[in-house]
Amino acid sequence: MKVLHASAWYPPHHLGGTEVYVAGLASQLRARGVDVRLVKPWHGAPIADGAHDGVPVRTYVVGAERTAAQFAGLAPHAGFETFETLLREERPDIYHQHSWTLGLGAPHLRAAHALGIPTVLTVHTPNVACLRGTMMRFGRTQCDGRIEVRRCGACWMEARGAPRPLAEALTLTPIGARASSHVRHKRAGFAQMIASADRIVAVAAWLRQALAANGAPAERLVTSRQGIDVELERALRQGPAGPASGPLRLGYLGRWHPTKGVDVLIRAVRALPADAPVRLTIRGLPHGAEEAAYEAAQRRLAAGDPRIEILPPVGRADLALALRTLDALAVPSLWLETGPLVVLEAQAAGLAVLGSDCGGIAEFIAPGGRDRLFPAGDAAACTRAIAELAADVDRLRADRAPRAVRTMADAADDMMRVYQDLV
Hints:
By secondary structure, the chain is of the alpha/beta class. The protein folds into two domains: 2-227 and 409-422, Glycogen Phosphorylase B (Rossmann fold), CATH 3.40.50.2000; 230-398, Glycogen Phosphorylase B (Rossmann fold), CATH 3.40.50. The chain has 17 helices and 16 strands. It has helices spanning 17-31, 68-71, 80-90, 106-114, 149-159, 164-170, 177-196, 205-213, 230-238, 262-270, 288-302, 319-324, 341-348, 359-364, 379-391, 393-398, 408-422, and strands at residues 2-6, 35-42, 50-52, 55-61, 94-97, 119-123, 136-137, 141-142, 199-202, 221-223, 248-255, 278-285, 308-311, 328-331, 352-356, 372-374. The strands form three sheets. Strands 3-4-2-1-5-6-9-10 form an eight-stranded mixed β-sheet, with helices on both faces. Strands 13-12-11-14-15-16 form a six-stranded parallel β-sheet, sandwiched between helices. The longest helix has 20 residues, at 177-196. It is globular, with a radius of gyration of 22 Å. The termini are close together.
């Protein structure tokens, strides 16, 4: 069986959650005898095709032209014919797409479907249904994801600076026409997704519910949660020992992106009494100008507090060692995560998890026990949760033991069943 995966980003040029997932899935599928290939868009001068961990990687250039229809996913980007040629050359048994962006979206899925290739779309983020890309209503509460002109338009305008009451009122006026147009484009793109995907894979329960709420047929929906790398899982389980004494060691590992809520975490720690036995270590990974600016702002926010240290990001090879230095991992996201993988990695290492009570984070964490959940964005509640963990640090250390978690071997088994059902 030959499977062509398509992802907007892929190692070694990018290393986020989706890229780690796709690379891990590719590795596990190859171990099952699948001929795995990968294709990805490239923004810039053409680069030579290559390979990553034994997987052939081909690229196609996305032209610089940017029209409203292209941004909405209703028209192919400039240079789209290169992707079509590549698709015909590869002619896989399965086309499996992992992104929904300008460079890899509805036109790409539609092209594979038109060639008669069975198509699978894994949805990794809320952007297939949400204009804000967060699935947080007005940035504060979890949304059900239904695409509706008035409420989505108001939410979109509020994200761009309009006060909420004004944004809601503007949806009834000609001024709100642009927002309404964006929502209709989002709905049209979703309809194209349904028309072109033979199977739609949701990596979280809340995401499947949102897909179903917008008309995705139940018989084509598949739930397959994320899993961590098999070798990493073994490494994490083999070294559960953490700090033996001293203050609570709390860590953050992830991107420097505003939706990750690092500012909430820093403000929460700074609000603790000066003698609170807590140390926070932040290891952020920047990508692009927005994240660099956010990182700089958080460094300023943390400056002068000796309890907070900001260190370089951790490579995958050093992740197990970095987690062993911690008692608990913080995941203070301000949006509906579909994972995140770092929660599973922390659990496999025996750490407690401090996370926002929304999306995939809440799905991974059972009520009670060693972990703590707090309302997304609520720094005061986060402060209280950290204080509870610090007061309970001796028990956390005594009870520290690796927890059984889902791995990419489990995810690959799910995908093999999907593929075999389609060919």
